């Protein structure tokens, strides 16, 4: 009986973990989309540095910086300046943690 209870508990833990992971991934995609809407003009590759707007900073402050960094693809890096994105996140008070890999850049 104890083994059955342990198996049921483990099965429930796996299901709960899977649901949490799916929700966290969905939240991360929402963060990335919101950042794209509000912040693109401040982190565009080839553009001079411009301080982010209040709307952009609000989105940056709400975002999970580490998670968003995992979503940076080479295609995205063709249009987004990672140094400007890192600067914007830092300016807005939500920098990615040191050592985070953000696209092709490792946060110092």
Please sum up the structure shown.
Helix content is 66%, strand content 4%.
CATH architecture: Orthogonal Bundle
Summarize the amount of helix as a percent range: 55-70%
Instruction: Enumerate the spans where pLDDT stays under 50 for 5 or more consecutive residues.
Output: 2-25
What does the main sheet amount to? 2 strands, antiparallel
Q: For the largest sheet, list the strands in their spatial order.
A: 1-2
- Distance between the ends: 52 Å
**Mean pLDDT, rounded to whole units?**
78
As a percent range, the share of strand residues is under 5%
Return the CATH class. Mainly Alpha
| Inertia-based shape | globular
Query: Could you give me the name of the CATH homologous superfamily?
Result: Plant lipid-transfer and hydrophobic proteins
Counted beta strands: 2
Question: Which structural class is indicated by helix and strand composition?
Answer: mainly alpha
Count every helix, treating DSSP H or I runs of 4 or more residues as helices: 5
Order of helices and strands: HHHHHEE
């Amino acid at each position: 009986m104890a083994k059955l209870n342990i198996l049921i508990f483990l099965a429930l833990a796996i299901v709960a973990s899977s649901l949490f992971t799916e929700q966290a991934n969905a939240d991360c995609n929402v963060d990335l989309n919101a950042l794209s809407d509000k912040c693109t003009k401040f982190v565009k590759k080839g553009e001079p540095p411009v301080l982010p707007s209040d709307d952009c900073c609000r989105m940056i402050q709400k975002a999970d910086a580490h998670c968003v960094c995992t979503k940076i693809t080479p295609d995205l890096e063709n249009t987004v300046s990672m140094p400007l994105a890192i600067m914007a996140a830092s300016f807005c008070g939500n920098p990615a943690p040191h050592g985070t890999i953000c696209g092709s850049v490792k946060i110092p």
